[in-house]
User: Which sequence fits this backbone?
């Protein structure tokens, strides 16, 4: 079985979280704005396609910054 290095795991985790949040948020926002209609899944897919190129780079930039900030303000360094 192949394992990720620590940097690969961090990258994969950030991308997976970004895509997952995009899928959920796009679905929620599509439901709020358009309601459930005949073309709902087509609208949702378009929103995901637009959202991923925005969310992935944002996640790769913002998540490490937030993680470092949380690490600096955490007493217990053995959380990970």
Assistant:
């Amino acid at each position: 079985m192949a394992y990720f290095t620590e940097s690969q795991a961090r990258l994969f985790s950030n991308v997976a979280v970004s895509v997952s949040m995009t899928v959920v948020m796009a679905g929620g926002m599509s439901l709020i704005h358009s309601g459930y209609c005949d073309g709902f899944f087509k609208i949702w897919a378009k929103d995901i396609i637009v959202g991923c190129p925005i969310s992935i780079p944002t996640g790769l930039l913002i998540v490490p910054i937030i993680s470092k900030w949380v690490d600096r303000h955490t007493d217990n360094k053995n959380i990970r």
Q: What stands out?
A: The chain has two helices and no strands. The CA atoms of residues 15 and 57 lie 8 Å apart. The chain has a mean pLDDT of 89. Residues 40-72 form the longest helix (33 residues).
